[in-house]
Amino acid sequence: MIDSSTHQGFTLWLTGLSGSGKSTLTSALADIFRDRGYPVELLDGDEVRTHLSKGLTFSKEDRDINVRRIGYVARLLARNGVVVLTAAISPYRAVRGEVRAEHDANGVPFVEVYAEASLEALSERDVKGLYKKALAGEIPHFTGVSDPYEAPVSPEVAVRTDRDTIAESLSQILGELERRGLIGCN
């Protein structure tokens, strides 16, 4: 179990295009952290949109509001000792930067992970056919196709989910968290 007198909460913010593996990685990380005794919460972008951001569109303004809401909840949880895992496309650098700045201003560690995969790989693994529809112009405002995605310039961790295994990506992420002293070595 974790010694609550020394444990510090933090936010692990996974960003990347739809289908890049954010939810897969955060789900696996949540299991790992729970097994190690950490208090953990997972904030999935789609779930937050359903429960906290219902009624928002996919306009830039509404996407920014959704990301800010995720960031606010993540910061509140993390400052109270929770390991917060987010899986949200969060397409715009400036708003991700705002979320990071709010964490920093409140002394809450923020670690950005870029789940990177090529558009070709995402199209191939797309079981719902969303990329095919978006590329055909059938889905408007699809991030990475008809709407922009601004990749992080200097994330703490970048994982290539189109060529690395889940285990390799998890190892990179956990290694960075250990290096920063946010989790113990196991």
Q: Any overview of this molecule?
A:
This protein is α/β, with parallel strands linked by helices. It has helices spanning 22-35, 45-51, 60-79, 93-105, 119-125, 130-135, 166-179, and strands spanning 10-15, 40-44, 83-87, 110-116, 157-160. It is globular, with a radius of gyration of 16 Å. Strands 2-3-1-4-5 form a 5-stranded parallel β-sheet, sandwiched between helices. Helix content is 44%, strand content 15%. The model is unreliable at 1-5 (pLDDT under 50). It has 7 helices and 5 strands, in the order βαβααβαβααβα.
Offer a concise description of the structure:
With 186 residues, this protein is an alpha/beta fold. It has seven helices and five strands, in the order E-H-E-H-H-E-H-E-H-H-E-H.
Q: In what range is the share of β-strand residues?
A: 5-15%
Radius of gyration: 16 Å
Global shape = globular
Note the run of SSEs as H and E: EHEHHEHEHHEH
Please identify the oligomeric state.
Answer: single chain
Question: What structural class do the secondary elements suggest?
Answer: alpha/beta
Strand order of the largest sheet: 2-3-1-4-5
How many H/I helices? Answer: 7
Report the strand count.
5
Mean pLDDT level: 91
